[in-house]
Amino acid sequence: LASFFDCGVSALPSMYLGLPLGASFKSKAVWDPVVERFQKRLAGWKSKMLSKGGRLTLLQSTLWNLPIYYMSLFTIPASVACQLERLMRDFLWSKHDSDRGFHWVNWDEICCPKESGGLGIRPLRIMNEALMTKWLWRFANEEGALWRQIIVSKYGVESFGWWSKGSSFAHGVGCWKAIFSRLEVFKSLVRFEAEL
Known about the structure:
The chain folds into 2 domains: 23-122, no CATH class; 132-189, no CATH class. Helix content is 48%, strand content 5%. The chain has helices spanning 2-5, 32-46, 52-61, 68-71, 78-93, 107-110, 124-141, 146-155, 174-180, 183-189; strands at 14-16, 19-21, 157-158, 163-164. 15% of the residues are buried.
């Protein structure tokens, strides 16, 4: 088949669109490319003399967005979230390349909204939950989407097509199973209104 389509053959896990296919996303090692991108980006910035405001802007506009693609599909391990947030904290408070600096304010306070006295940096685990739960909203609203049709054909639907049935398979369903595990949270946040 590979020779007919003139394409290469490789073993799983392999990278496709920046994500490792066939890998266990419960494994911390799968998130190594994200951590490496964080560290690479920070290495380029640390040599420059930046104010706290400049560091905060870089955190919010660039660094914080690096794991978004992964976090929209897979549950971030707590240890990886802590490691990435530690890198962000150290970057925000450091004075020089090798100096971690003293952390003057608790990270939880920094992660509060600006209206509440924080700096508006969103905690990674909370954002991960929101991004994954959004797929359930999309499932309910994007009836013609190809990805939805694949989920429907694999698992079926219930509740008039608002969500899929759960998966009882042990392998090969990690992504949707992780998303579907947020169904109760999703149900508690939506309401149905009948139009007359």
